[in-house]
Amino acid sequence: xxxxxxxxxxxxxxxxxxxxxxxxxxxxxxxxxxxxxxxxxxxxxxxxxxxxxxxxxxxxxxxxxxxxxxxxxxxxxxxxxxxxxxxxxxxxxxxxxxxxxxxxxxxxxxxxxxxxxxxxxxxxxxxxxxxxxxxxxxxxxxxxxxxxxxxxxxxxxxxxxxxxxxxxxxxxxxxxxxxxxxxxxxxxxxxxxxxxxxxxxxxxxxxxxxxxxxxxxxxxxxxxxxxxxxxxxxxxxxxxxxxxxxxxxxxxxxxxxxxxxxxxxxxxxxxxxxxxxxxxxxxxxxxxxxxxxxxxxxxxxxxxxxxxxxxxxxxxxxxxxxxxxxxxxxxxxxxxxxxxxxxxxxxxxxxxxxxxxxxxxxxxxxxxxxxxxxxxxxxxxxxxxxxxxxxxxxxxxxxxxxxxxxxxxxxxxxxxxxxxxxxxxxxxx
Length: 429
Ligand code: UD1
Known about the structure:
429 residues, alpha/beta, four-stranded mixed β-sheet, 14 helices, 24 strands, 26% strand, globular
């Protein structure tokens, strides 16, 4: 298994190109199931999760063609996928595939909406808390599907098609909102989603679905209204920039000090996180082409942050912020309200010398002058990258094991950081 070796203590200086958002690319690829025509997606990141979803969609009979690089393009340009679900040969998503990636459960909605039935394995255990799917099931049920649980599978049936309805989410859920929106596009009549997630990835998927002929309004607000249509058509759409990757590299630059330009980063997608960096003493300058992050010499001030649904501070940047605050001049507090157990990085950060106390969903981080390199590993994507951030500033050498977590969500991480002066390399095997 690959490892990443980092020798800490170098400032980051240079430009980091931001890739397309994983959390938009995955549902956009899944939306291709809603039409028999070809959906063309540009700016798709080259990630293990994307490759895995290609295999899962292939199992349903979806053909995916990846355009090669055009002349003048570099690895910084995302890939273009031509996705055709002209013929769906199988409406079952088996356990072996769904258990590898939770988001693949989301095929439930487009399959039942277009084909009238879907049989999707329950996702099973996940490293960050229980992560149930009850609200996704509730959404398709509200649209008229009958639901049975058979042998660990959710079986949804709507032989006469789905019907528009009102869906009220008792809590904000990104996966539930994606499910409700996709299912409602092909339902007869009007669907109103209340307490919808407002994440930018919801807006990006709705934009793409509207290009495909859907009638969706209100995406990005708490209430989304969908007028169902009989059919969707092909379209072309570019995946929006990854706000979590943007925030992660912003924190890496803040951690080491230096001057980094996050090319294509869009400040409005992560304003809450940028505000936290500013209050910590980092200089953040938004431009038309991206975001400049500078920290020269000055120490970091501690912060008090609570994760919450968009537009507030994202849970997907919580681990990275904790790494950063482990070197602040004072005591920080971070409260995680979205996922229980999303603190697996704490033990590993402690091995690097961080001082962190956990009490339920609240972490207290007492800043230390220096972290020290050590072998570490982590069990999820965001936790792994928080260890990379810590290692970039730690004295001496850190090896991060189980790099496959990073490959799920960060495109060419060691290349992007290395080009800004980090001493980072991948060790194979
Ligand atoms: C998505 C993101 C993930 C991010 C999360 C929160 C993708 C591929 N993943 O995950 O990176 O951390 O949003 O911004 O886009 N819940 C239920 N019942 C359900 C569904 C969810 O109780 O049926 C709960 C969850 O346990 C959690 C909360 O709702 O406490 C939010 O979950 P949700 O927004 O659905 O997260 P994901 O879509 O899984």
